[in-house]
């Protein structure tokens, strides 16, 4: 009756032979305050922000004019010429981040060119800049002016497809959309594939919609900061919180089963120990938001009591009511001032599907270097929040367990618990 | 149709570069008229993108069979010249 | 103990019929719903045909504010979700909200609304610096299609894991796989999931024209979608949605639910080859099929029906024939393999779920839907493609395959006889 399995890979609905630990062995960062993992990390520890006035287009006519742009990115320095006409800016960033992550992991053809190696990315906006150009061609010149590449360059699955092709990965792939919460959900889905039998997953998220059309769509939420002062525009948990700044970029991670990673001598940054996703009740419901349930679910999944958590990387919406809701959830789980909380995204802006993965990367680098990076632009959190927000200088403290939170527009909540490796990874020279 | 709209191999190469990028280890300025697109590293979408830009620039239209037939820049050039001649003939 | 996942509710919005009953009427009778595009003037396009839904949101029960807020794809999903919930007999208000999840697939999300609004904020393509003052309040929800999953979650009161799955043309199968995974791993007991797409808009037509993927058989729209036929010349765009209620088996049995089928196997692979191209050997799709069958513990010879991707492009149908031969071996030729895209077109991300819905209905009725328009089979597509007329036969174990841009290759295996209450094979 049974055919048996003829290859060693996946099955997300299957019984899954392994429940082993999923470890991160490679990190690739493309962020507004640093192109490359160590560049980003150094800037973050210096408290150096990538938020400034938009340069991609003239933002003068828009109510919001600041953004976290990845400056100085020359795609032809990172990618073959052939890929450029067919890719949106955000796909070029994603491919670059994936290359960095794969290189960092030391994964070669043996690990990548198999049915056990897959890609799961998150997306929020797809290739919107490419899409705007082609819509403009269509509506200003005519339908015959639309590029053949529009058939795939803008859609939400493009980064997963291009990363799998560039790296020859033939295993289980996926694309998750849950706005800003999707980045963590994608990494959780990659872990699910490892549990189903895959051996290596490239995962995370990179987003950008910093074109006029994407900007117009983002402005429609009414949640973007309208400040022109990069130091005051995005101040999560401060009493000056007045909206968020949008950015571009994110992080791509290489996730492997611990067995596979150790067998090939890779050095894990840490492991994905737990995850849970929840959704808020409909607007107007008497029931409160479901962020606390996500936190508790992730801790339970990690078999981790709240007291073991050393640091929380907050979602940090930068809006008074949402900051208050997040602070309340943290108080309920950890007690007032119960755990160090930080929001390095105050230096990059909110990166949509890239935000969660970048926070994961930051937490893992924090394990490595025994430090919690600060929340920029905030001197003191609003005392009403009663949270221990890390501000000013980085806080030198060894962390072994981190909780990363992300919330997406519409009510998405995602929480992920990371653990430091048993043998600490030392900083790269 | 004016005289300067006669298509040359250089126009094809320029359109290929713009539509699908430069290849690794391929000299597009070399003698490539009879080298297949796939040997030059251009896939079917790259060829379609190139043909689209030529069609718009020169005001002709290639049918599906003609595109299938165009396996090299030289063949594409010949089909494009035939098609533009057709357009010019109609316009005359 | 392994948790098993069954489908207990079904809702459909499809070309040719709104609701599962009308949908089955189209498929069982081999009727085609492809026609000249009526929703906008497509006269300048190479391919001017599509399978459109005759969908009137007011009649389907949506409120004026829902209609204003939701893109057409979200409207389809909402209406299909309502039908699936009612069909399941499950009282969602009585369920613990945090144990209910949502998994909705879509390839192009709210593209129709995005294009409509782009035309306004750009003033018909005249302004590159689009004017935010003309942006509608829900513009961001059109940009990010997690809004579609959110709409479904609000309707059913889901507070567990909620995701949109967007893997292009395999979204509809992958969303089914994702829903089953959430239940199987214990993250949820009930998931409302499936897929939706409403891609029939100028920008979508234009980009498929540019790659000459859609059929230009404009003079005979009703017979334009010809999977496996020698004269096939591209796919015909479609639209629609199919949503399901997925339930943990014991949860369903305890309440005596009608069970359509068990989601017994799911697997996906990538061809790592090309964003639109397919390798002719179909190796990765074959691998996905083999893995899904293995999980389901169904042997190739036990399959009663294969619902093929069968898009009707030259390339796909050869690729898929090779993949089915490679994965089913000697049974490839003796198993019915049909493509319902011949009747309802290719609705991108939605089609995988519409095909799963077709499989469930085929199981229930003991009838394999045909491949319409198949008069002159391509000698290279030499499987039993059930031409023109539906075939009566018991359908207990089925396979549905999908293939999409980005290299995604997916397979779902469903089992159970689907005819009696809880009458699932042990």
From TrEMBL, chain A:
Residues 19-420 form the Ketosynthase family 3 (KS3) domain. Residues 1-21 are annotated as: Disordered. Keywords: Acyltransferase, Transferase. SUPFAM superfamilies: Thiolase-like (SSF53901). Pfam families: ketoacyl-synt (PF00109), Ketoacyl-synt_C (PF02801). InterPro entries: Beta-ketoacyl_synthase, Ketoacyl_synth_C, Ketoacyl_synth_N, PKS_Beta-ketoAc_synthase_dom, Thiolase-like. GO terms for molecular function: 3-oxoacyl-[acyl-carrier-protein] synthase activity. One of its GO terms (biological process) is fatty acid biosynthetic process. PANTHER family: POLYKETIDE BETA-KETOACYL SYNTHASE 2-RELATED, POLYKETIDE SYNTHASE-RELATED. Belongs to the thiolase-like superfamily. Beta-ketoacyl-ACP synthases family. This is Actinorhodin polyketide putative beta-ketoacyl synthase 2.
UniProtKB/TrEMBL annotation, chain B:
The keyword Transport does not apply. InterPro entries: ACP-like_sf (IPR036736), PP-bd_ACP (IPR009081), Ppantetheine_attach_site (IPR006162). This is Actinorhodin polyketide synthase. Residues 7-84 form the Carrier domain. It holds the Pfam family PP-binding. SUPFAM superfamilies: ACP-like. Keywords: Phosphopantetheine, Phosphoprotein.
UniProtKB/TrEMBL annotation, chain C:
Residues 2-416 form the Ketosynthase family 3 (KS3) domain. Keywords: Acyltransferase, Transferase. GO terms for cellular component: cytosol. GO terms for biological process: fatty acid elongation. It comes from the Bacteria. InterPro entries: Beta-ketoacyl_synthase, Ketoacyl_synth_AS, Ketoacyl_synth_C, Ketoacyl_synth_N, PKS_Beta-ketoAc_synthase_dom, Thiolase-like. One of its GO terms (molecular function) is 3-oxoacyl-[acyl-carrier-protein] synthase activity. Pfam families: ketoacyl-synt, Ketoacyl-synt_C. Belongs to the thiolase-like superfamily. Beta-ketoacyl-ACP synthases family. This is Beta-ACP synthase. It comes from Streptomyces filamentosus (Streptomyces roseosporus).
């Amino acid at each position: 009756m049974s055919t048996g399995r003829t290859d060693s890979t996946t099955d997300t609905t299957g019984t899954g032979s392994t429940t082993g630990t999923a470890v991160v062995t490679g990190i690739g960062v493309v962020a507004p305050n640093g192109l490359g993992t160590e560049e980003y990390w150094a800037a973050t520890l210096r408290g150096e922000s990538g938020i400034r006035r938009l340069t991609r287009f003239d933002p003068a006519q828009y109510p919001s004019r600041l953004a976290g742009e990845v400056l100085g990115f020359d795609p032809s320095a990172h990618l073959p010429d052939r890929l450029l006409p067919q890719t949106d800016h955000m796909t070029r960033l994603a491919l670059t981040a994936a290359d960095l992550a794969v290189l960092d992991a030391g994964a070669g053809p043996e690990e990548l060119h198999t049915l056990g190696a897959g890609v799961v990315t998150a997306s929020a906006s797809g290739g919107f800049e490419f899409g705007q150009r082609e819509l403009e061609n269509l509506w200003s010149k005519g339908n015959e002016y639309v590029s053949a590449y529009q058939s795939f360059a803008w859609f939400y699955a493009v980064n997963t497809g291009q990363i799998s092709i560039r790296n020859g990965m033939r295993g289980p792939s996926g694309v998750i959309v849950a706005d800003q919460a999707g980045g963590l959900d994608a990494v959780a889905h990659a872990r699910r594939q490892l549990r189903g039998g895959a051996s290596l997953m490239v995962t995370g998220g990179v987003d950008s919609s910093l074109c006029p059309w994407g900007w117009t769509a983002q402005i429609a939420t009414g949640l973007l900061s309208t400040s022109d002062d990069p130091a005051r525009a995005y101040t999560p948990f401060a009493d000056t919180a007045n909206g968020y700044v949008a950015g571009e970029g994110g992080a791509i991670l290489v996730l492997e089963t611990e067995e596979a990673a150790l067998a090939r001598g890779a050095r894990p940054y840490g492991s994905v120990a737990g995850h849970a996703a929840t959704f808020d009740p409909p607007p107007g419901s008497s029931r409160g938001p479901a962020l606390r349930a996500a936190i508790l679910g992730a801790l339970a999944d990690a078999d981790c009591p709240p007291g073991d958590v050393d640091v929380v990387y907050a979602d940090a919406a930068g809006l008074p009511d949402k900051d208050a809701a997040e602070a309340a959830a943290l108080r309920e789980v950890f007690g007032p001032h119960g755990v160090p909380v930080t929001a390095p995204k105050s230096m990059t802006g909110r990166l949509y599907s890239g935000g969660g993965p970048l926070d994961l990367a930051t937490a893992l680098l924090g394990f490595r270097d025994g430090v919690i990076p600060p929340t920029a632009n905030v001197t003191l959190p609003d005392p009403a929040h009663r949270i221990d927000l890390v501000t000013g200088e980085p806080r030198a403290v060894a962390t072994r367990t981190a909780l990363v939170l992300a919330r997406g527009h519409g009510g998405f909540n995602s929480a992920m618990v990371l653990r430091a490796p048993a043998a600490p990874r030392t900083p790269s020279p | 149709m004016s005289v300067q709209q006669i298509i040359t191999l250089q126009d094809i190469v320029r359109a290929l570069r713009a539509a699908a990028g430069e290849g690794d280890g391929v000299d597009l300025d070399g003698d490539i008229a009879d080298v297949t697109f796939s040997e030059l590293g251009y896939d079917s979408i790259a060829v379609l993108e190139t043909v689209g830009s030529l069609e718009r620039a020169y005001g002709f239209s290639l049918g599906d069979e003609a595109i299938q037939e165009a396996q090299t820049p030289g063949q594409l050039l010949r089909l494009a010249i035939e098609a533009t001649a057709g357009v010019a003939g109609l316009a005359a | 103990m392994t948790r098993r996942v069954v489908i207990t509710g079904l809702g459909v919005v499809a070309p040719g019929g709104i609701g599962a009953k009308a949908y089955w009427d189209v498929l069982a009778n081999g009727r085609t719903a492809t026609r000249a595009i009526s929703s906008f003037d497509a006269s300048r396009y190479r391919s001017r045909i599509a399978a459109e839904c005759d969908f009137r949101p007011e009649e389907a029960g949506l409120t004026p504010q829902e209609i204003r807020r939701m893109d057409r794809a979200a409207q389809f999903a909402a209406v299909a979700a309502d039908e699936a919930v009612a069909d399941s007999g499950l009282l969602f208000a009585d369920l613990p909200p945090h144990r209910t999840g949502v998994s909705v697939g879509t390839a192009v999300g709210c593209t129709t609304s995005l294009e409509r609004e782009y035309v306004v904020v750009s003033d018909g393509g005249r302004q590159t610096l689009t004017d935010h003052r003309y942006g509608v309040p829900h513009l961001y929800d059109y940009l990010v299609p997690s809004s579609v999953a959110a709409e479904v979650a609000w309707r059913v009161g889901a507070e567990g894991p909620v995701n949109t799955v967007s893997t292009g043309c395999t979204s509809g199968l992958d969303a089914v796989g994702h829903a089953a995974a959430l239940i199987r791993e214990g993250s949820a007991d009930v998931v409302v999931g499936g897929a939706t797409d409403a891609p029939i808009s100028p920008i979508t037509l234009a980009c498929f024209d540019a790659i000459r993927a859609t059929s230009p058989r404009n003079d005979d729209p009703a017979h334009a979608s010809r999977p496996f036929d020698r004269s096939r010349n591209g796919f015909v765009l479609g639209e629609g949605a199919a949503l399901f209620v997925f339930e943990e088996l014991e949860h369903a049995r305890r309440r005596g639910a009608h069970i359509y089928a068990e989601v017994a196997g799911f697997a996906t692979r990538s061809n790592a080859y090309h964003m639109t191209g397919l390798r002719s050997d179909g190796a990765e799709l074959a691998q996905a099929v083999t893995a899904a069958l293995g999980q389901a513990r169904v042997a190739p010879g036990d399959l009663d029906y294969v619902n093929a991707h069968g898009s009707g492009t030259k390339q796909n149908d050869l690729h898929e024939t090779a993949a089915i031969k490679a994965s089913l071996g000697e049974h490839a030729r003796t198993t019915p393999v049909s493509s319902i895209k011949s009747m309802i077109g290719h609705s991108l991300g939605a089609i995988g779920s519409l095909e799963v819905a077709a499989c469930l209905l085929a199981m229930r009725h003991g009838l394999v839907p045909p491949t319409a328009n198949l008069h002159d089979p391509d000698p290279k597509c030499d499987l039993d493609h059930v031409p023109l007329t539906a075939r009566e036969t018991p359908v207990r174990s089925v396979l549905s395959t999908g293939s999409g841009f980005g290299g995604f290759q997916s397979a779902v295996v469903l089992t159970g006889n689907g005819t009696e209450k809880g009458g699932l094979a042990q």
